[in-house]
Amino acid sequence: MRSITKLCWIVSIISLGLNYFTQAQMREWTNTQGQKIQAELISVQSGKAQLKLSNGLDTLYPIINLCQSDQEFIQLFSNSEQPTQSSATHQTTLDWDKPWPKEAQLDLSSHTAEFTGESEGIYTYETANFTFLSDVKLATTAIRNFSRIFEATHAYASAIPFFHDIHNSSSRKIPIEVYNFKRDYIKNGGIEGSAGVCFVRKDNTHIKVCFDYLGVKRIGSNISFDYSGDSTTIPHEIVHALTDIAYYDNDMKWFTEGIAEYMSNTEYSLGQTKYKLISIERYIKSATTTRGNKKYRGRNLGNNITMPKLHSFMTQPNFFDSGNPKKN
Amino acid sequence: MGCLLTYYFIHLDDKKDQARIKNLLKSLKDREEKRAWREITGISLIEKHLLGEEYSFENLEQDFAKAMKRLGITINYE
Q: Between helices A140-159 and A233-242, what is the axis angle to 10°?
């Protein structure tokens, strides 16, 4: 059990969203005299526990004056709060001043997608930064095109100053689970009504999506890439996975959703595997004002929009359900 | 609208250099490193870095609406 659990799992989805952000827990503390108080453990410093009391005040309490089980609790807390490799390394890659990219291109010569095996009906493919797990075998061209989208989105994120430490933030590849049928997507943790979901966790970020929303064609039992389809769901979820966990805050959902929409709506050329930002204004505008049907994701809000005042908009508890902008 | 607001802070805000949104994101990273999630709220950082002493939410609403008007989008606030 931990007092401060930065268990941040952000579920980002297209039409419905959940955001679970648990930072601290109020618990009962008992001192050696048997007296009890309710407080959250904030930090441990020089033999004292910094406790936030239920009235909001902080106090530093000598650990030695707490009962044995509370001291053990603090020991567990201290062990869990050791710096991780990611926090130790990201300082070396800060580059807030690099110019905003005009385009981001993937070097195809160094890019490969490798089939690494099949186990219990799950086919696994590896790219440089992602592990792609599919419950149906895919055509070679589909795998190639999906993997290019994954890696191009990663390259795009690398070019943006906000994503400066993605290379050092984790040594593991990000898993992307893809399900052939919606029922299996839901059964395995996908959210009803969603196109995809990204679970953002400190050491276990992963993505789940259903083929229904990936811009694919089904011909018999085969799945192939639909060049005329909307494949923005995967980039949207990948951006969530690559977004720094520090930016996930209840008051920042407008940004964490916004940057995912911004990047997934940037003009993308599959042939050249390139994101091009020159015409982004047009794409962002159409994604907000006009698009929004079965084939193409978008909000279809029109050009005359009523929205909450910005303070309310930015801090609304459920960014997806309440107080959203309305078409006039 | 989160997308348009993000677009605004990246490409249209102030000197169009992302200064304010970068300062906000830097402060969020700083809060993460200090593990000060309880003490420092997201909205307090928004008010500090996206607004400031002489720039209010009302000012931001006006500037955002003006910028969107140039894109051909009319914004009305409830």
A: 40
Are A303 and B74 inside 8 Å of each other by CB? yes
Question: Which of B7, B28, B73 faces A305 most closely, judged by CB atoms?
Answer: B73
A95 within domain boundaries: no
Q: How far is B62 from chain A (nearest CA, A)?
A: 10
Out of B1, B11, B57, name the one closest to residue A311 (CB): B57
What CA–CA distance (Å, rounded) separates B50 from B52?
7
Task: Identify whether residues A152 and A301 lie together within a single domain.
Answer: yes
Distance CA A290, CA A300 (A): 4
Residues of B in contact with A303 (CB under 8 A): 72-74
- Contact between A20 and A9 under an 8 Å Cβ cutoff? The reply is yes
A88 found inside a domain:
no
Q: Walk along chain A (328 residues) and give the pLDDT tens digit of each residue.
A: 333 223 233 333 333 333 222 234 678 888 887 888 888 787 766 667 778 777 666 677 777 788 877 877 776 666 554 433 333 333 345 688 888 888 887 777 667 788 899 999 999 999 988 999 999 888 888 888 888 888 889 888 988 988 865 644 556 789 999 998 889 999 998 888 888 899 887 778 899 998 877 777 777 777 777 776 677 888 999 999 999 989 999 899 999 999 998 998 887 777 676 777 766 677 777 777 666 554 555 666 778 889 999 999 999 876 654 445 665 5
B50, B9 in Cβ contact below 8 A?
yes
A100–B64 CB contact, under 8 Å = no
Please tell me whether residue A82 adopts helix, strand or coil conformation.
Answer: coil
CATH number, position A16 = 2.30.30.700
Q: Kindly report the nearest CA distance between residue A306 and chain B, in angstroms.
A: 5
Count residue pairs from A and B with Cβ separation < 8 A. Answer: 136
User: How many CB atoms neighbour CB A286 within 10 A?
Assistant: 16
Residue A56 lies in a domain: yes
Give the number of domains in chain A.
2
**Tokens at A327, concatenated:** 């078409």
